[in-house]
Write a structure and sequence with these properties.
Elements lengths: L4 H12 L3 H11 L11 H11 L3 H10 L2 H10 L7 H10 L3 H10 L7 H8 L5 H17 L5 H14 L5 H17 L4 H12 L4 H14 L6
């Protein structure tokens, strides 16, 4: 299939601005180990997305291209109203770095009507970037979904308790940040977040304790743990 003019233009821009040193630094400095990338900085991708505007068909083409930058742009130009659960699952299956997980969750998936059901599915999936997506989506929803009832976030606390012993840093960090966001944006749930953090810091498992400690430092600074 012949690429659309819009896709061809973006690919030409990315190719012209490709930076091998920046591409190496993505992995060495930031731990972004994408399967394919151009090394174009985020600020430039934001400019390209702003100039492009919403274009769902283009977003699908950009995602299919497979590079870190094209998939980042896909999240920025896709139309949340046209994103189905099936598309969310397919894109989630393609995640290959924490950066693309977080970008897609924070710029697209949290704006879809399917975000909460996908949280329920992804947090129970043991694959690294899928579980990361589940908790990154909770994190994003805590910051952006002002209409969600507090009970949604109480349910999220139970997911955090269940999976706080996941030893993988990319998962643990997303759980901690989700809890921090809930405590910050949901004052009615904050005491429950702190209580959970206290419980986690008393656990015998080191990974579990590491999830809870930053929450106590932020929201219960007088606690010696």
């Amino acid at each position: 299939m012949t690429p659309s003019p819009a896709l061809e233009g973006i690919l030409a821009t990315l190719g012209a601005e490709s930076d091998a040193d920046a591409r190496r630094a993505m992995g060495e400095k930031y731990g972004i180990h994408a399967d394919a990338s151009y090394g174009v900085p985020m600020r430039r991708l934001l400019e390209i997305a702003s100039a492009t505007g919403r274009d769902h068909g283009l977003a699908l083409d950009l995602w299919a291209h497979g590079a870190y930058e094209t998939r980042t742009l896909a999240a920025m130009v896709a139309d949340p109203a046209q994103v189905s659960r099936g598309l969310m699952q397919r894109w989630c299956e393609d995640f290959d770095s924490w950066a693309i997980v977080d970008t897609v969750c924070f710029r697209l998936f949290d704006r879809t009507p399917h975000a909460w059901p996908m949280v329920e599915r992804w947090v129970e999936d043991d694959r690294l970037f899928v579980r990361r997506a589940g908790f990154a989506l909770i994190w994003a929803l805590a910051l952006h979904d002002t209409s969600a009832p507090d009970d949604h976030f109480r349910r999220a606390l139970s997911h955090a308790r269940t999976h706080a012993d996941d030893p993988r840093p990319l998962v643990a960090k997303s759980i901690t940040m989700a809890l921090r966001a809930i405590a910050t944006r949901r004052p009615e749930v904050r005491a429950e977040v702190v209580a959970l953090a206290l419980e986690l810091t008393q656990d015998s498992d080191p990974a579990t304790r590491r999830v809870g400690r930053p929450i106590l430092r932020s929201f219960a600074p007088d606690d010696p743990r």
